[in-house]
Write a structure and sequence with these properties.
Elements (H helix, E strand, L loop, with lengths): L18 H4 L5 H14 L6 H7 L18 H7 L4 H18 L9 H9 L12 H61 L1
Helix pairs in contact: 2-7, 5-7
Bound molecules: zinc ion (ZN).
Amino acid sequence: MKSLKNLNFKAVTPGKPHPLLQLPSSSSYDANRLLVKLKFMSGTYILQSNRASFNQNSVDPTCPLCNEAPETLSHFILNCSLTSEIRKPIIADIRFEIERLMPNTWDSFNTEEKVHTIIDCSGLRHRSKLTKTEILRLQSVEFHCRRLLFTLHTERNRHLQIINVIKNKATSAVHSYKSNISRKVSTVSQTLH
Ligand SMILES: [Zn+2]
């Protein structure tokens, strides 16, 4: 159940979808963002630190994007320096919408609470019955949380593809260098015989 620690179970009622899944999607693009967000909500989005914990010593948990720290959930969502430029404006939007819904909340949150809220903002309610305006504001918070996770996910994939292309080119360069050397060695040894 550790993987579900960011899911707000208080908001789950038997026989009813999670409240965030009841919010209407504003576009088909937003619906696609939901698919990525569901992976975070269900704890099935795999980062380098998860891969390392599954594979013990054979996988390095370091973030493959910035190489500065283990790629944990909080690093990926809040701290990775390589994605900071695209993250900043979206975090500002999330903060703005949360402050409209519940003033003085976002700045009082610690890292864990921020990560939890971005993954499942349904806990942002001071009473169980929200007014229409509050529902709309919660919807705006959720919109920007989906936007953040989807944008980070896309950016991570883009960087990983670039890194893979560079790695493949380096591997094939080393391979052709090695075969050139062995060809030269065999020519030299044939000449000596
Ligand atoms: Zn990083």
